[in-house]
Design a protein that fits this description.
Strands 6-7-5-15-16-17-14-18 form an 8-stranded mixed β-sheet, with helices on both faces. It has a 6-stranded mixed β-sheet with strand order 9-2-1-13-20-19, with helices on one face. It has a 3-stranded antiparallel β-sheet with strand order 3-8-4. Strand 16 and strand 17 form a beta hairpin. The N and C termini lie far apart (50 Å). The chain is globular and about 65 Å long. Helix 2 packs across helix 8. It has 376 residues and is an alpha+beta fold. Helices cover 30% and strands 25% of the residues. The protein folds into 2 domains: 165 residues, FAD/NAD(P)-binding domain (3-Layer(bba) Sandwich), CATH 3.50.50.60; 144 residues, 2-Layer Sandwich (D-Amino Acid Oxidase, Chain A, domain 2), CATH 3.30.9.10.
């Protein structure tokens, strides 16, 4: 009789599939349910920068200690991504560094200086470079007037849809089951755990994890795992595959750009570090022209598609890991930083549920913090 715990994960995005891999590798019997197909939600429209940034979306009230903890959470998760690369052959992550630039004397330059100061104090290998040094690091980059530049060598990017599919395949190779087009319909508590209902029928579970991204607020209705969430939109222009033009993540004052492992380039106006709600969907042809000023190799690039992805962002910008005493085997995880944090959050959640311990690193991100704020 198989006594391995049964785990049902709702959502086959980057967090859900990474959780599936970690649980299956630990011997759990895992089922992933998704109402669509793998990586069809926010993951597919992600800019996919694996970042150490210190200025976090809608989290300016964090304070120094809170921001540093979140920064360290990112760096721990990056280490876990590197470990997963050693386990899963061909995982499409490239650690090619990041160049951030601004024109001297501007507000963007002042923000960069403040971020650089934080990074240096918190132990990041980031350092300031001249325009000439930036061109040596990244020959495809032409900063022009944006000569306030710093470089972070240990950041990178991924091809998110390909990576998510590979994480799911690796989970299935360890025994996980994947049920696409199988919408979650609810659950009931039983004497031994939970009965999960979906379009395909019912299944027993010891643990139920909601990793449904934009759908999480609806999915967790009735569980008591609520947290203040804000709806936001992220717009990304995807270019048709090109020969290798640049390797680094390029974050200029007017455009952000990444060339992925498959040669596709994604560009955005200002994808990260901005208030909740990115700029409206850009004119793609105009954004290509802007991008070509700092990356001349994009001059004749062809727009393949534009994605405008709805996301849910916790009200204070931080991840939310929700559990309750009434439903000890049910957990919800929501974050707008899944690209950077999925590997770390997945490990911590797997440890907490399978080993029955409290992972202290998750404490600042538990939903209880919102109730504590109300009481104060």
């Amino acid at each position: 009789m198989n006594s391995a715990p049964q785990v049902v994960i709702i959502g086959a995005g980057i967090i859900g599939t990474t959780l599936a891999y970690d649980f299956a590798k630990r011997g759990a019997r895992v089922t992933v349910l998704d109402k669509n197909e793998v990586a069809k939600g926010a993951t597919s429209g992600s800019f996919a920068w694996i970042t150490n940034q210190t200025k976090f979306r809608n989290a300016d009230s964090l304070g120094e200690a809170g921001a540093q903890h979140y920064f360290n959470l990112h760096r721990l998760s990056h280490l876990r991504w590197r470990y997963l690369q050693s386990e899963i052959d061909g995982l499409p992550i490239r650690w090619s560094g990041c160049l951030q630039s601004a024109e001297p004397g501007t507000e963007e330059a002042r923000e960069l200086a403040a971020e650089l100061d934080r990074r240096l104090r918190w132990g990041s290998p980031t350092y300031r470079v001249t325009a000439a040094e930036a061109r040596e690091i990244e020959p495809g980059f032409e900063p022009g007037a944006e000569t306030d530049i710093f470089y972070t060598p240990d950041e990178g990017m991924m091809s998110p849809v390909q990576l998510t599919s590979m994480m799911l395949d690796a989970a299935v190779a360890h025994g996980a089951q994947y049920s696409a087009h199988d919408a979650y319909q609810g659950f009931v508590k039983t004497a031994g755990g939970y009965e999960i209902k979906s379009r395909s029928g019912s299944r027993a579970a010891d643990f139920l994890i909601f990793a449904g991204g934009i759908a999480n607020p609806e999915l967790v209705e009735g569980t008591g795992l609520k947290a203040p969430l804000i709806h936001s939109t992220g717009s990304v222009v995807h270019l048709a595959p090109l020969p290798r033009i640049f390797d680094s993540v390029i974050l200029g004052a007017h455009v952000h750009a990444i060339q992925r492992v498959d040669g596709r380039v994604v560009i955005a106006k200002h994808f990260s570090g901005s208030p909740v709600g990115d700029p409206s969907t850009p004119d793609p042809e105009e954004l290509v022209r802007v991008a070509a000023r700092v990356l001349p190799g994009l001059k004749d690039a062809v727009v393949e598609k534009v994605t405008e992805t709805r996301r849910v962002i916790p009200a204070d910008g931080l991840p939310v890991v929700s559990r309750s005493e009434e439903l000890p085997g049910v957990l919800s995880v929501t974050t707008n930083a899944g690209i950077s944090l999925a590997a770390g959050l997945s490990q911590f959640i797997t440890t907490e549920l399978l080993d029955g311990v409290t992972v202290n690193l998750l404490d600042p991100y538990r939903s209880q913090r919102f109730a504590d704020q109300v009481r104060r």
